[in-house]
Amino acid sequence: MANVSVVRAYAKNVDQAPRKVSLVASLVRGRSVADAIVILNHTPKRAALVVRKAIESAQANAVNNHGFDGKTLTIATLSVTTGTRLKRFKPASRGRALPFQKRTSNILVEVTGELKPKKAAAKPAEAKATEAKAEKPAKKEEKK
Q1: Based on the number of CB atoms within 10 Å of its own CB, is 122 exposed (0-12), middle (13-18) or buried (19 or more)?
Q2: 75 and 111 Cβ atoms separated by less than 8 Å
Q3: Residue 25: which of 42, 50, 60 has the closest Cα?
Q4: Using DSSP, how many helices (H) and how many strands (E) does the chain show?
Q5: Strand partners, 54
Q6: Contact by Cβ (8 Å): 107, 51
Q7: What is the pLDDT of residues 24-46, one digit of tens each?
Q8: For the residues 126-138, what does the mean pLDDT come to?
Q9: What is the bridge-based pairing of β-strands 7-14 and 74-91?
Q10: Do 35 and 4 touch, CB atoms closer than 8 A?
Q11: Core vs surface per residue 42-80: b (16+ CB within 10 A) or e
């Protein structure tokens, strides 16, 4: 690998318990991005959609913003942590209200890969403009 930098993507406050999301995350941790997306497309868990979107977001960040080659991307880190908890109450018998918490998750995806090879530098705009000006008068003289 020429450059070993990491590109990150976060999915914060996902409305699922971190214990359930981390089960799906462990399926694809350490794999290539293409393999991970195929696996998650065929995983019958609700958390698979959210993890796949986070991985695709990291892939898009790497390709579009940082110039990585999309075919060489691998998942360096895939961690699931607890997000904010929403405190709610559930009605119970005899007019009581029982408390419970809606748990959320934060997903961090880091991908690494190789940078795209840089193209040869094009001619500067000034050089193109001078070549174009040199050609135009020659054409006019031929018409006379």
Answers
A1: exposed
A2: yes
A3: 50
A4: 5, 3
A5: none
A6: yes
A7: 999 999 999 999 999 999 999 99
A8: 64
A9: unpaired
A10: no
A11: ebeeebbebbbbbbbbbbebbbeeeebeeebbbbbebeb
Model pLDDT, residue 116? 84
pLDDT for res 79: 96
Neighbour tally for 102: CB within 10 Å: 12
| Pick from 111, 108, 90: nearest CA to 4 | 111
Give strand ranges (E) for 16-138.
74-91, 97-112
Using alpha carbons, list the distances in angstroms from residue 41 to 5, 27, 50, 144. 27, 12, 11, 69
78-126 pLDDT, tens digit each? 999 999 999 999 999 999 999 999 999 999 999 999 988 877 776 676 7
Question: Does residue 1 have a pLDDT over 60?
Answer: no
Average pLDDT, the chain: 88
Domains and CATH numbers, the chain: 7-143 (3.90.470.10)
Q: How far is CA 123 from CA 42, 101, 130, 133, 134, in A?
A: 48, 62, 11, 15, 16
Which residues in 17-142 belong to E strands, given as ranges?
Answer: 74-91, 97-112
